[in-house]
Amino acid sequence: MMKPSPPRGMGEGRKGADMSVDSQTYRDAMARLGAAVNVVTTGTLDDPVGFTASAVCSVSDAPPTLLVCMNRASRARAAFHAGSPLCINVLSAGQRDISGTFAGPLDMYERFTVGHWTTLATGAPVLEEAVASFDCTLDRVVEVGTHSVLFGVVEAIRIGAPVGGLVYFNRAYHMLPHGGREH
Fold it and tell me: Closest by alpha carbon to 85, among 40, 130, 54?
């Protein structure tokens, strides 16, 4: 009888909780977990900071709370701290260029030359053309491995035009059609 091989990336015959997965296998699998593309901002309209993120999800609706994962090596990281404003701007299918701008090498001021920016409750930059914007106060930051997990309590929400969404899947952008109903 043939012995089955261990799952890809797993060590041979290890016992207990020390089963590890190599980072490349993990990244390859995570590339197949599609996610909405967002621009996350802090600061003010006069001193804005922002980056592109796909690791964003709801934590709770009471109180309404979201989380964002951010690479600790990001040059934007120092601007995000407990008590600061935080806005998650969900991008539409037609905003791939904005995602690229906020993921690229441009300085913070140059990034904010694309799109139209305003504020809601916290003063963080809000993208007027976003599918939805969640204006939050950064409640806490938890450091996990290479990333900072930012927890934002939602203070205000702006819902944009009913258009399709932008997702990142298998290391590429994909456009989702608008198929939902309006409020």
Answer: 40
Q: Which has the closest alpha carbon to 85: 130, 49, 132?
A: 49
For the chain, what percentages of helix, strand and coil (3-state, to nearest 5) are there? Answer: 15, 40, 45
C-alpha distances out from residue 29 to 82, 104, 115, 141, Å: 32, 24, 33, 26
- Domain boundaries defined on the chain: 37-172
Which stretches in the chain have pLDDT values below 50?
4-5, 10-16, 183
Cα separation of the two ends of the chain: 60
The dihedral over CA atoms of 90, 48, 73, 63, expressed in degrees to the nearest 10, equals -50
Which strand (E) or helix (H) includes residue 109?
helix 108-111
Say whether domain 37-172 belongs to CATH 2.30.110.10.
yes
- Measured torsion, CA atoms of residues 157, 107, 55, 95, in degrees rounded to the nearest 10: 60
Task: Quote the Cα angle for 111-90-127, to 5°.
Answer: 45
- Bridge partner residues of 136 (DSSP): 86, 154
